[in-house]
Structures are given as structure tokens and as C-alpha cells.
């Protein structure tokens, strides 16, 4: 009997580059002592529940949008960023995304 072994490539840990970037930034801030991981988990869980995302998630867009929302709230509460700065940064990224041709990397202007 011949055994068939599939050698498919492993699934990527992050579906989009920004998923990895926001995760790495969060880990960096935790390691720098800006917040405890237990505090992060509590706040992130609250964000997931607020959005009705209490189910197990696979790390897709809804998961990382909630992750980013939690990180933005942390930065505002810590005084690292103002709500206005968060709003303007979101707008700048949205505009950059909309003007970027399909398949090309998104970059902020300037």
C-alpha cells in the first residue's frame, strides 16, 4: 500500500501584513511595561464581546479590527495619542488604501 503525503505550505500566521504589525506593536508595548498582558486580555475580551465576537475567531479581519480598536483605546487612555490623532490616522490610512491600485502595498503620503 502506498501512502500519500501532502506537502502543502503552512498557513500564514497573519492574513495581512498590518495584522502582524499591530500584533508586534502590542507585544512591544507590553514588553516595555506600558500595560500587563492580563490587562490586555481583559480589555481585548471586552472589545470582542461588545462587537458580538465572543466566539472563537481565526485571526481574520474582525479579530484584528477589534485588536486595533483595543490598542487605540489604550493609547488614548495612556495619553500617548489623542482621540483626534487616532481619527486622523484612521482617515489617512483609509485615503491611502482607496488611492492604492489593487495588489500594491499601501503607503501613507508624505
- Residue share in helix: 55-70%
**Gyration radius from CA atoms, angstroms:** 18 Å
Total strand segments = 0
Helix-strand pattern: HHHH
Describe this structure in words.
- There is one protein chain.
- This protein is mainly α.
- The protein has one domain (17-99).
- It is built from 4 helices and no strands.
- The protein has helices at residues 17-31, 37-50, 61-77, 83-99.
- Helix 1 runs parallel beside helix 3.
- The mean pLDDT is 85.
Task: Chart the SSEs and their pairings.
Blueprint: H1 17-31, H2 37-50, H3 61-77, H4 83-99
Short description:
The protein has helices at residues 17-31, 37-50, 61-77, 83-99. By secondary structure, the protein is an all-alpha fold. The relative contact order is 0.10.
Features:
4 helices
